[in-house]
C-alpha cells in the first residue's frame, strides 16, 4: 500500500463514524507558501516551495516598554541608540542588552537619529518638528527648529551637513554644522519621509502623499526618479553597485502610532433588508422568507492591511517592481553581502529574504510584534527594531532548535465533526514534527476555546480529538538540535452538521404565462412542463418578455397552464430535490402534484383540477446528499392563487325598441372569477366596450343593456365577456 493510499484510507476511516451526519466532508489543506503564509510562525522559515523548516534563532535584546521603536543607530562603542514613541525618548542599549535613557524630549515621537560629532547624536522629534544635538553624556541643545510639524528623516553628508525631511509641507532642509538651516528642496508632496545618498553622494528623497523618489544634486536641483501609486516611500537603500531599493507602502500598517498617511475610513457594515413574507409584483405573486445561517461568532475579519512593493531603480534610471506582498507593508530594507535583500514588514512583523532572478521571497522569521520598523546588520547578527510593542530583537546566524507554526483559523461555517489530520514531513534522526489542534465557536481563539489536543502520532492520519465546533486551528512544532525537520503539507477533514434546507421564495406567475426552453429548436418547448402534457398542447404566440431568470427563454401564453418558480438554499451545499403539493383553500389535506424534481420550475396543467382557490407547497429535501435517516426537509407555502378554466356564460335577453333605437339586455355569469371586460360587435365590426347597469365591473354576475341604432335591424349582435383569469365567453342574437 502506497503512502497516498494509506492517507486516503485513514481519511475515509476517520469519516466513517460520522457519516450519518452528512455525506459531504470537507478538507483543508496547506501545501504552498501562500497557504502557510496565512498562519503565524515562531522561529520557523517558509521557503519559496512552501516548506517549513527551523529558522534563525531570534532573541529579545531589550524591551523598551513603549509602543514604538521607530529608529535606531549604532554607536562607536557597540551600543545601540533607539528612538521611541509615544514617550519621545532616546534609549542607549549596551552590548549586554542593558538599556538606559540618554535623552527624554518634550515631544512624543523620535522618528530619526543621525551621528553628530564627538560621539553625539542628532535627534529629530515630532509633532513639534525640532532637531536636538545630544552629546555622549546626554546633554541636549536645540540644533534646528523649523516651522514644520514633523521631522521624519535625517541624513548627514560627507561635509557634515544635516539634511532633514519634514512634513506636512514636504520640505527638505540643509542644516550646517553650526545649526543654520535653509530650504534645500521642495518635493511638492505632503511629507519627505526617507533620505539617503546615492553612489555619487547626491541626496535621494522618498516622499509621502504621494509616494515618489527624487534625486537632488548639490545645487538643490531635483529629478523625479520614480512616481508610484503608493501612499509613501518609507525607506531608501543603495547597494555597492549604485542600485537603489525603495520600500513603498499604502500606509504605515498595523495600529497606533504616527502615520504620514491619512486614516483610511472603513465603510459601515450594511444590514441586509428582510424581504416581506408575501409580496405581489404586478400580477406575479411572490412569497419570500428571510434566509438564516447557523452558528455563532462574527464573520471573517477585515484582512485589509497596509500593502506595498519593493522597487529597484538601476543607475541609469530604469526601475521595476521586484516584490509585492499580498498583505505585508515593507518598512525597511537591509542589503546583504551576497546581494540579497532582507525586508522588514508591518502587519504581522514578518522578515523576508529576496534573492534570485526572477526574485523569490522566503519568509525568514517573524518578530513578536506587529511591525518590524528597522533593520541593522552587525558583524555577528541582525538587529530589528519593532513597534506594537516597542522592542529591540536580534536574529543570529545560528538555527533555532525549536519553532512552531499556527494555522489561520479554519471556518467550517457550521458546527462540525472533525475527521483526521494527516501531514507529510521529512524528519532526520534527532528531529521531530508534532501536530496539535484546538477548536472553538468564536472567530478569534480565546479562553472559550478548547485546549490544544495532541500531539498526534500518525502522520498518515490521526483522528482529531478536539471538540465539535465551528472553527478549527492546528499547530505544528518542529524540533531539532543538529538538523531541521521539513514539513511540506498538512490536511484536515471536517464534516459539517446537516442543516435543514430552506425554500426562500415561491413566485406564482400570472395564469397562462409560460416560458420557452432557452435553447429549444423546432416546435415550442415549454420549460417546466411534462413532456406528455406538452404533447397535448400547442403554444400560442405572445409578446416577447423576460423570464424570471437566465435559465428561461421567450415568454409565451397558453391557456390553462400555471407557472411556479421557487428559490431554495442549503448551507451545506447539498444537492436538493423537490416535492410539490397542492390543496384547495379551506381544505387541510395536501395532495401530491410532482415528486423528485431537480429544477426550481414547474408548469402545472390546471385543466386537470376543478376551478377554485389553491395553495402550493414546495418541500426541499437534501436526501440525495445524506443518508435517509439524517436527510432533512424544508417547506414553504405559496400565496393563494385562483384556477378558473371555464369561460363566462353570456345570455342575451329580450330586445325592445325605444323610439328608433334597439335595446338588447344581456346577463353574464361566471362561477369562479370576476367579470373584467365586456365588448360587443355588430356583424363583425370593431369591438365596442359595454358597461354594466351599475357602472362597475366587480362581480361574477353582471347585467348589461346594449343600445343600437335603427340600422341594426336584421344584423347579428355578438357579446364577448372576459373574466379575471382570461377565459372568454360569447353569446349572440339577431336584431329583430
Note down, in words, how this protein is organized.
The chain is mainly beta. Among the domains are: 3-55 and 401-496, Jelly Rolls, CATH 2.60.120; 502-643, Immunoglobulin-like; 649-734, Immunoglobulin-like, CATH 2.60.40.650. It contains three helices and 55 strands. Strands 1, 2, 33, 34, 35, 36, 37 and 38 form an eight-stranded antiparallel beta sheet that branches. A hairpin with a 4-residue loop joins strand 54 and strand 55 (728-734).
**Biggest sheet details:** 8 strands, antiparallel
- Looking at the structure, what is the overall shape? elongated
* Class computed from helices, strands and strand pairing: mainly beta
Topology-level CATH name of the domain at 3-55 and 401-496: Jelly Rolls
| Proper CATH architecture of the domain at 3-55 and 401-496 | Sandwich
> What's the quaternary structure here?
single chain
Number of helices: 3
**Helix content percent band:** under 10%
Radius of gyration: 40 Å
Report mean pLDDT, rounded to a whole number: 86
Distance between the termini: 101 Å
Strand content: over 45%
| Strand element count | 55
Amino acid at each position: 500500500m502506497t503512502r497516498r493510499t494509506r492517507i486516503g484510507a485513514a481519511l475515509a476511516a476517520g469519516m466513517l463514524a460520522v457519516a450519518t451526519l452528512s455525506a459531504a466532508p470537507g478538507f483543508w489543506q496547506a501545501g504552498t507558501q501562500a497557504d502557510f503564509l496565512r498562519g503565524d510562525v515562531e522561529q520557523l522559515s517558509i521557503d519559496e516551495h512552501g516548506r517549513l523548516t527551523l529558522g534563525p534563532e531570534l532573541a529579545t535584546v531589550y524591551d523598551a516598554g513603549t509602543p514604538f521603536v521607530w529608529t535606531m543607530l549604532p554607536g562607536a562603542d557597540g551600543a545601540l541608540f533607539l528612538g521611541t514613541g509615544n514617550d519621545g525618548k532616546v534609549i542607549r542599549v549596551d552590548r549586554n542588552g542593558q538599556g538606559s535613557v540618554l535623552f527624554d524630549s518634550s515631544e512624543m515621537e523620535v522618528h530619526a537619529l543621525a551621528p553628530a560629532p564627538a560621539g553625539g547624536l542628532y535627534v529629530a522629534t515630532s509633532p513639534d518638528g525640532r532637531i536636538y544635538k545630544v552629546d555622549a553624556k546626554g546633554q541636549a541643545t536645540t540644533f534646528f527648529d523649523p516651522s514644520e510639524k514633523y521631522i521624519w528623516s535625517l541624513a548627514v553628508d560627507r561635509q557634515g551637513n544635516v539634511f532633514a525631511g519634514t512634513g506636512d509641507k514636504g520640505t527638505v532642509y540643509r542644516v550646517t554644522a553650526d545649526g543654520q538651516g535653509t530650504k534645500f528642496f521642495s518635493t511638492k508632496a505632503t511629507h519627505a519621509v526617507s533620505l539617503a545618498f546615492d553612489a555619487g553622494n547626491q541626496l535621494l528623497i522618498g516622499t509621502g502623499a504621494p509616494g515618489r523618489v527624487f534625486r537632488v544634486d548639490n545645487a538643490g536641483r531635483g529629478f523625479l526618479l520614480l512616481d508610484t501609486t503608493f501612499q509613501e516611500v518609507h525607506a531608501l537603500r543603495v547597494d555597492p553597485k549604485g542600485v537603489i531599493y525603495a520600500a513603498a507602502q499604502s500606509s504605515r500598517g498595523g495600529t497606533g502610532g504616527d502615520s504620514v498617511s491619512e486614516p483610511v475610513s472603513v465603510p459601515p457594515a450594511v444590514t441586509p433588508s428582510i424581504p416581506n413574507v408575501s409580496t405581489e409584483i404586478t400580477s406575479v405573486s411572490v412569497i419570500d422568507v428571510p434566509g438564516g445561517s447557523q452558528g455563532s461568532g462574527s464573520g471573517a475579519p477585515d484582512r485589509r492591511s497596509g500593502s506595498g512593493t519593493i522597487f529597484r531603480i538601476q543607475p541609469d534610471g530604469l526601475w521595476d517592481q521586484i516584490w509585492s506582498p499580498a498583505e505585508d507593508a515593507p518598512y525597511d530594507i537591509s542589503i546583504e553581502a551576497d546581494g540579497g535583500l532582507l525586508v522588514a514588514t508591518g502587519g504581522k512583523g514578518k522578515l523576508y529574504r529576496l534573492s534570485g532572478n526572477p526574485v523569490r521571497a522566503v519568509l525568514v522569521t517573524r518578530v513578536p510584534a506587529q511591525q518590524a520598523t528597522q533593520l541593522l546588520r552587525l558583524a555577528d547578527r541582525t538587529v530589528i527594531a519593532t513597534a506594537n510593542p516597542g522592542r529591540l530583537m536580534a536574529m543570529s546566524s545560528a538555527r533555532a532548535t525549536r519553532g512552531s507554526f499556527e494555522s489561520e483559523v479554519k471556518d467550517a461555517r457550521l458546527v462540525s465533526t472533525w475527521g483526521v489530520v494527516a501531514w507529510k514531513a521529512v524528519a532526520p534522526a534527532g528531529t521531530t514534527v508534532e501536530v496539535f489542534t484546538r477548536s472553538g465557536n468564536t472567530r478569534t481563539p480565546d479562553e472559550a476555546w478548547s485546549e490544544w489536543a495532541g500531539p498526534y502520532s500518525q502522520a498518515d492520519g490521526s483522528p482529531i480529538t478536539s471538540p465539535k465546533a465551528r472553527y478549527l486551528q492546528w499547530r505544528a512544532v518542529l524540533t531539532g538540535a543538529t538538523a531541521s525537520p521539513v514539513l511540506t503539507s498538512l490536511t484536515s477533514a471536517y464534516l459539517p452538521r446537516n442543516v435543514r434546507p430552506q425554500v426562500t421564495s415561491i413566485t406564482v406567475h400570472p395564469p397562462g404565462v409560460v416560458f420557452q426552453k432557452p435553447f429549444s429548436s423546432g416546435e415550442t418547448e415549454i420549460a417546466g412542463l411534462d413532456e406528455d402534457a406538452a404533447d397535448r398542447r400547442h403554444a400560442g404566440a405572445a409578446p416577447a418578455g423576460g423570464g424570471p431568470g437566465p435559465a428561461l427563454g421567450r415568454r409565451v401564453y397558453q391557456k390553462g397552464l400555471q407557472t411556479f418558480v421557487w428559490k431554495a438554499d442549503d448551507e451545506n451545499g447539498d444537492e436538493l430535490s423537490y416535492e410539490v403539493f397542492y390543496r384547495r383553500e379551506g381544505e387541510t389535506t395536501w395532495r401530491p402534484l410532482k415528486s423528485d424534481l431537480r429544477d426550481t420550475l414547474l408548469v402545472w396543467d390546471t385543466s386537470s383540477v376543478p376551478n377554485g382557490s389553491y395553495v402550493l407547497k414546495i418541500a426541499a429535501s437534501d436526501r440525495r446528499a445524506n443518508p435517509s435517516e439524517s436527510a432533512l426537509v424544508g417547506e414553504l407555502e405559496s400565496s393563494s392563487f385562483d384556477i378558473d378554466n371555464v369561460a363566462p356564460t353570456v345570455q342575451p335577453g329580450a330586445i325592445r325598441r325605444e323610439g328608433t333605437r334597439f335595446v338588447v339586455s344581456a346577463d353574464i355569469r361566471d362561477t369562479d372569477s370576476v367579470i373584467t371586460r365586456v365588448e360587443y360587435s355588430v356583424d363583425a365590426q370593431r369591438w365596442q366596450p359595454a358597461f354594466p347597469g351599475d357602472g362597475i365591473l366587480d362581480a361574477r354576475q353582471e347585467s348589461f343593456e346594449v343600445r343600437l341604432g335603427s340600422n341594426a335591424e336584421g344584423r347579428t349582435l355578438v357579446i364577448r365577456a372576459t373574466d379575471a383569469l382570461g377565459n372568454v365567453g360569447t353569446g349572440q342574437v339577431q336584431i329583430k
